[in-house]
Amino acid sequence: MDFTFKKAQKLLTSKDFKSVFDHVHIKAGTGELLVLVFDNQDERPARLGLVVAKKNLKRAVDRNRFKRTIRESFRTHQHQLKGLDFVVLSRRGALTLDGPALKRVVDQTWRRILKKRAANIATRDS
Length: 126
Description:
Layout: H1 14-22, E1 26-29, E2 33-39, E3 47-51, H2 60-77, E4 84-90, H3 99-125
Helix pairs in contact: 2-3
């Protein structure tokens, strides 16, 4: 299994971000982050976009740590998240968590999203 984070797995253009913002299928949030999900309903690789505002994380080192932690967690869960486009937005609470705590929150968020996706598929199929 390949756990690299390739360019094809990044939301790069404003069009990519707009498609997620305009067609949110799943929302999952905590005090530290908000995740918006667009379900392509196909088997292409999951894609990730990050929005980290200076308003929420003032220091560059904090913004970079937040992004690095999100990307690392995404990279390890990417095979379970196929067919989904994610935009992860930072919230003020992100500053209160250290690296391992933030990773735990992000990992729990991926699991909640997968549960919501399964529930959406079950209701759509019935």
